[in-house]
């Protein structure tokens, strides 16, 4: 069960933008905009707490949720680090196209694959509220804030695609382990902070 939830969260990381996470069944989970403003190059305590909460809501014990949330975020950091190392970039144009596509899905209530998005009106209201909380117009929110926050989500997607195409046998787990070794002091510090 934990594995399924973790896989769902990994899928979600590819669509993290602004205030919503898109689940495989096209439902959205509302997160505070402040949770997603953190720099992706560092471990985010706020994001960690949000992930723990979501896992606990799924029936996972607190101890397991803390560990899974930690592993999930370390995986993201490792993949972003590897993407940077491999020269994987995301252009402003790509980020804007992604934001436009996400906005179209939320406003139309229809996902890319043509399936309806449950409660899409609620997600429109969440976007409006997030823009208001940030002191932005809805246009500024979709045209500036969302694209800026989409860059690393798109990097994650690109590196996963690239790793699948590479002939080398390096798996994502190996990349994460290399990252942990390279950043062992940081990992120990983070573990203490989250209670591991």
Architecture overview:
With 196 residues, this protein is mostly helical. It has one domain (2-194). Helix content is 67%, strand content 3%. It is built from eight helices and two strands. A two-stranded antiparallel sheet has the order 1-2. Strand 1 and strand 2 (28-30) form a beta hairpin. It is globular and about 45 Å long.
Describe the SSE topology.
Blueprint: H1 2-13, E1 20-22, E2 28-30, H2 45-57, H3 62-85, H4 92-108, H5 120-134, H6 138-165, H7 172-182, H8 184-194
Antiparallel strand pairs: 1-2
Q: How would you summarize what this structure contains?
A:
The chain is mostly helical and 196 residues long.
Strand content: under 5%
Give the helix tally: 8
Radius of gyration using CA atoms only: 17 Å
Overall pLDDT score: 75
List unreliable stretches of 5+ residues.
1-40
- Helix content bin: 55-70%
Q: What is the helix/strand order?
A: HEEHHHHHHH
- Total domains: 1
